[in-house]
Amino acid sequence: MRLRQYTLRNLSVPLLLILSAWACAFYITIIREINEETDESLTNHKMLIIKAALADSTLLTDHVDILTQYYIHEIPPAKADLSKDVFFDSTRVVPLEMISIPVRGLRTCFRTSDDKYYELTIITSILEKEDMVRATVIGLAILYFSLVFCILLVIHLVFRKSLHPLYVLFDWLKKYRLGKTNIPLRNETKIEEFHILNEAIEDVVRRNTKLYNMQKQFVENAAHELQTPLAICINKLELMSENPDCTERQLSDIASLHQTLSGIVKMNKSLLLLSRIENRQFPETSRIEMNKLVSGIQENLDEMYEHKHITVTVKNSAQLFTTMNESLASTLLTNLIKNAYIHNCQDGIIQITITAHTLTVANSSNAPRLNASTLFDRYERQSRHKESTGLGLAIVKSIAALYEIQVEYNHDKQLHEFKLTFK
């Protein structure tokens, strides 16, 4: 959820509650005012009727018209309560139309000059009140929804304009690629906080770019400075081994040194590769069919490890395509499959299963279940095999992390299983 939507949602809830409470209070106030106006009209009418009846006793009769009617009848003194007016709501049937209409009534008592007590009941139609209430409710509802809509719209537009520099910054960061030529940040704003944020981000990016270039230069220099003397040492050892004056013991020592230096060369190449992967120095990507890549790697490794008589089974359940750097894809699969050859037993088996989203490599081995928590760490060796540098699975893990590929290890039925899950 975006910041603008999150803020708008959090503002909407209290706003709706406040406006709903206001609408209810306004409705109650309007109804009270209408009732008070009606009661005041009935009270004034009562005073006029009583005044006229006291002045002329012939008016002590019932009166009925379309909207208002009143009834006067004599009551015993014991039932008369001159200090109390009673208001009530009721309905009245219109004789001609035979429909019920709402009415508001007033019941009161008064005494004439000859000490007789009368009860006066006045009833007036409140159809106009009902129409007024209905119109008020409709108008209030329209006003309520219009007000809510306008307030939320204004808040949305204000936030959209206010947060525009932030989203410009986000878009620039998404498009930014370390090690590539990027467009400069153009994000003019009058908001001081956003201006500070722009400067801070640009400063961090500049420092990261500088560090990246320094590390890249170091990797390139290390590759040259280390590989060259190592290659010279190996060549000299090979020349020494061809010397006819060398004894068998000396040849054995030379072979041991040659093997050690070759291991250092492999380790140096692996460390340089890890550094380049972690520094994201493989930006080029393409769509790769992993099935074909596995087939080519398996054929090459079969020739290299022919002496181990390993039976390899490749099951292609579906074509597996992924988008990544072609060189890294080859390195990923080579290290994983080569690991299965190196740590396999004589006359062992390797099972490679490929589906639309997964690639599984399982190999037989005399080794027990491995520690999955440290298996992919650098220099974590499954065995002291002379061909192992302890970096193969670390490289697999780094490449997988770069392309968000999930790597899992499992041990079942004497088989060590490595599973890659692609998005």
From TrEMBL:
Q: Which reaction does it catalyse?
A: ATP + protein L-histidine = ADP + protein N-phospho-L-histidine
Q: Which organism is it from?
A: Parabacteroides acidifaciens
The Gene Ontology terms for molecular function here are: phosphorelay sensor kinase activity
What keywords are assigned to this protein? Kinase, Membrane, Phosphoprotein, Transferase, Transmembrane, Transmembrane helix
- What are its GO cellular component terms? plasma membrane
Spans traversing the lipid bilayer? 137-159
Q: Which domain of life is it from?
A: Bacteria
EC number(s): the record gives 2.7.13.3
User: One short Pfam family name for this protein?
Assistant: HisKA
Keyword ATP-binding in the entry? The reply is no
Would you tell me the protein name for this molecule? histidine kinase
- The segment(s) forming the Histidine kinase domain are 221-423
Database matches in PANTHER family: SENSOR HISTIDINE KINASE TRCS, SENSOR HISTIDINE KINASE YKOH
Mind telling me which InterPro entries this protein's record contains?
HATPase_C_sf, HATPase_dom, His_kinase_dom, HisK_dim/P_dom, HisK_dim/P_sf, TCS_sensor_his_kinase
